[in-house]
Amino acid sequence: MADFQKVTVLGAGVLGSQIAFQTAYKGFDVTSYDINQKALDAAAKRYDDLVETYKNEVPGAADGAADEARKRITLTDDLAKAADADLIIEAVPEVLELKQDTYRKLNELAPKETIFATNSSSLLPSDLESSTGRPDRFLALHFANRVWQFNTAEIMGTKDTDPAVYDKVVQFASDIGMVPIQIHKEKAGYVLNSLLIPFLNAALELAAGGYAEPEDVDKTWRIATGAPLGPFQIYDVVGLMTPYNILMNGDQGNRHLGAWLKQNYIDKGKLGMASGEGFYTYPKSDQSA
Ligand code: NAD
Questions:
Q1: Where in the numbering of this chain does the 3-hydroxyacyl-CoA dehydrogenase NAD binding domain appear (predicted)?
Q2: Is the CB of 95 under 6 A from ligand 1?
């Protein structure tokens, strides 16, 4: 076991709530921080929904373990209280200045030994390290959406990360039931998104170009490779807004694909599994997280 007693997760949105819940589910006391009462109320609802999701989807969770996990999570909007931890996992919105500002404030409040880890999907840890005030105790710990099911944790330091800190975080990832994926040097997109984004774009090109229906693209991928999900099923799990935002920041070809996604799906309220419909429709019980 990593020698962490107190773990804080900053930001209790989609990913922050999942990381906090999974950490609590594996027996840690977790402080879940968000900015105000309204955000905390939304977080409390997310945790209640996660209790039900775990009961439905995680073997053994219905025998009291999911309810116990919920009790190990303390919600707060007091950053000083949140900063009192051995490990702080940051899952605040993907905005560089907001993350930097958060780290500056946190560095003032947290003990010197506290390790900071970012869950950022698209920023490199070296974009953030100077604002942490502790480059040797800072790295990326990147989870995938639906952490209880898609349980990779990609661990990526900067050239300044202390190897002992890196190893502790690898151990922690394992302690909370993740499969740690060690990345040896900084790479935008880590392993997962370096593979996934070109794959998802290629699928979109087939559908937007009128070559094949999304269902048939998925069917081809599943049958021919044995993969459980096709690319459009993955879009629905991720939610369509994140890929859309990435496409609209890309070149002209990417923006064309983004516009197609918007016109045919997003503008019709088809945002993916969480909204009940994306490329496929979902019964209410599938729509958690
Ligand atoms: P989200 O918008 O669902 O949640 C962000 C939360 O942060 C909100 O609850 C918001 O109130 C809170 N917040 C806003 N300002 C804050 C501040 N100053 N301090 C603390 N909390 C603040 O976002 P998300 O999808 O959970 O993404 C969070 C991070 O996780 C991002 O860096 C993103 O790249 C990363 N990530 C997301 C996914 C995904 O599939 N959604 C997957 C992997 C990684």
A1: 6-185
A2: no
